[in-house]
Amino acid sequence: MIRFEHVVKRFGDNVVLDGLDFAVQPGEFVTLIGPSGSGKTTILRLLMTLEQVSEGRIYVGGDCLSHMTRRGREVPADEKYQRRIRKRIGMVFQQFNLFPNMRVRQNITEGPIRSLGLPRAEAEDRADKLLDMVGIADKADAHPAQLSGGQQQRVAIARALAMQPDVLLLDEVTSA
User: Fold this and answer.
1) Residue ranges of the domains in the chain?
2) Other residues' Cβ atoms within 10 Å of the Cβ of residue 135
3) Which CATH number does 2-86 carry?
4) Residue 78 DSSP symbol
């Protein structure tokens, strides 16, 4: 499902990832453990294309995330190509990144409506089922500021699952 091949990531002269090779099979759960600054979040940011690889290749479901073929030649992937692959990946960020001006249900339905073209009623039904699944169905009409950190994290998880991704990435999943 995910494959890193000889991935190098540099920030200036600082090499954060040096020839990283690993694969995650469909249905497999993987935890990255290491000290602060060891590259765990960088790996997630590369998968979300928030950072670009310096060298190497990343594949998601067999598609190369970092490069594409154009006119028979391999070239760096453009934003449109990466967005198509990125739709298969859900991400829960360490800071949750909820929209503070939107109620909980809106936070969950915005992506499926705008990115997937889901009808509002279907997106809201999906959101309500996910909120029930994560144990905060009673918070659907609250704003994020009215929730505890743990409740905000559950909203972020429900929001990621609402997109029905093939891959779910969780950064600092036990933080709240």
Assistant:
1) 2-86, 104-170
2) 11
3) 3.40.50.300
4) P
What are the contacts of 56-59 at 24+ separation with CB within 8 A?
56/4, 56/5, 56/6, 56/7, 56/8, 56/19, 56/20, 57/3, 57/4, 57/5, 57/6, 57/7, 58/2, 58/3, 58/4, 58/5, 58/7, 59/2, 59/3, 59/5
| 147 — pLDDT class (breaks 50, 70, 90) | very high
- The structure's pTM equals 0.82
pLDDT digits (tens, 9 = 90+) for 149-171: 899 999 999 999 999 999 999 88
Question: Residue 175 above 80 pLDDT?
Answer: no
Burial of 34 (0-12, 13-18, 19+ CB in 10 A): exposed
Residue in this structure with the two tokens 């360490």, named with its chain if needed: 94
What does the block give as tokens for 4?
A: 């890193």
Q: Rounded to an integer, what distance in angstroms lies between the CA atom of residue 30 and that of residue 39?
A: 15
